[in-house]
Amino acid sequence: MSYKILIADDEEEILEILELYLEKDGFEVIKAVDGKKAWDIINEINIDMAIIDIMMPSINGFKLIKKIRENYNIPVIFLSAKTQDEDKILGLGLGADDYVTKPFNPLEVVARVDAQLRRYYNLNYHNKNVEQIIKIGEIELDIFSNIVKKNNKEIVLTSVEYKILKLLMENSGRVLTKKEIFEIVWEDNFIGDNNIIMVHISNLREKIEKNSRKPIYLKTIRGLGYKFEKKVTSNEE
């Protein structure tokens, strides 16, 4: 299967370099030179993933990811010369799955694309003996269809949010450290950037909790990590 990758960047050289390396790796590449063109392509073509620059004309990357997350659940990687933590946290908070700063090694970008697609589409998942549906309280997660529901109503999650929730629900009742979560979800060495996980946890709570400030499902265990409660009573809900 050839995955369709959208690259949105106003630098022609960046588009050409990434197109060259991604096509060499077997991907089909669609290019856009600004945010408006990228948004039109997303609505016209069934793309599998997007690589988006932050500083683009017409619609910048932050506005574009917000529009994408309101309508689609594809993996998104931010590509930008901005290196400040605030920009990185904002991008991840808006729904980006990964963040690469310029200048970059094209092979690293290809590796990150491979990793995101592998995790998102569960290419290595073949264990049919695993319980298909995990249900705790009002939250229901279907492992095979990658669908999460609350009170039988589907919740739209980003791919990273889904992976974190799946990991925590599969290990409900157990405290997972930030290091464990990062290395399993991102498949990379933990570098101590706790803010990335914190942002995604906060976004998850906004979507699954009745009151995100007083969570009953996704608990913070201070000094240790996070835990998804194994049982939630009707009184708590």
TrEMBL record:
Residues where 4-aspartylphosphate is found: D53
Keyword Transcription listed: yes
Occurrences of domain OmpR/PhoB-type (ranges): 131-230
One function term, GO molecular function aspect: transcription cis-regulatory region binding
Keywords: DNA-binding, Phosphoprotein, Transcription, Transcription regulation, Two-component regulatory system
The Response regulatory domain, residue ranges: 4-117
Cellular component terms (Gene Ontology): cytosol; protein-DNA complex
GO term, biological process aspect, one: regulation of DNA-templated transcription
Annotated region of DNA binding: 131-230
Tagged with keyword Phosphoprotein: yes
Cross-referenced PANTHER family: REGULATOR OF RPOS, RESPONSE REGULATOR SAER
The protein, known as: Response regulator GtcR
Name of the coding gene: gtcR
